[in-house]
UniProtKB/TrEMBL annotation:
CC cofactor: Ni(2+)
GO biological process: response to nickel cation
Record-given protein name: Putative nickel-responsive regulator
Native organism: Methyloversatilis universalis (strain ATCC BAA-1314 / DSM 25237 / JCM 13912 / CCUG 52030 / FAM5)
Pfam families: NikR_C (PF08753), RHH_1 (PF01402)
């Protein structure tokens, strides 16, 4: 781990310390590390050096809107390669909150999120993307918890992708 020193004027240091306290950080170093990570992630997404992401898309919608639930489900099925999981919660008699976990190419995830949020009756849509590195691995079947299939029994390997946040 490397150390470096920065100088802040008293007012900025006080504002930073207030922000740290509001967020519940234990110290300035953790807060600075998180700020750096967020800015580096944003920069990688803007420059195109990051190509894949995991994301959380959340939105509120009026479930009485004509065919909206069916349109949203159809969008998710049409992009099953991006959609990892969906959580649905009822907020009141008219509104639902859905959270969709996504994984894939940044451009495809953004396009999917934009399409969902643009649906008539969807409100307050937001997507949070985290750049990741994709790494394909092959594992042999074993007691470590990997799914066992006939292919494994025949000595094959299970191919899957490891997703690791860009640090």
């Amino acid at each position: 781990m490397q150390r470096f020193t920065i100088s802040l004027d008293d007012q900025l240091a006080a504002q930073f310390d207030d922000w740290i306290a509001q967020r519940g950080y234990g110290n300035r170093s953790e807060a600075v590390r998180d700020l750096f990570r967020a800015e580096l992630d944003r920069s990688q997404q803007q420059t195109g050096s990051a190509t894949h992401c995991v994301a959380c898309l959340s939105y509120v919608f009026n479930h009485h809107e004509r065919d909206l639930a069916e349109r949203l489900t159809s969008l998710q099925h049409a992009h099953h390669d991006l959609t990892v999981s969906t959580m649905h919660a009822h907020l009141d008699h008219d509104h639902c909150l859905e959270t969709v976990l996504l994984k894939g190419e940044i451009a495809a995830v953004k396009a999917f999120a934009d399409a969902v949020c643009a649906e008539r009756g969807v409100h307050h849509g937001k997507v949070n993307l985290i750049a990741v590195e994709m790494d394909a691995h092959h594992h042999h079947a074993g007691p470590a918890g990997h799914r066992y299939t006939r292919r494994h029994a025949a000595g094959g390997s299970a191919g899957h992708v490891h997703v690791k946040p860009v640090t």
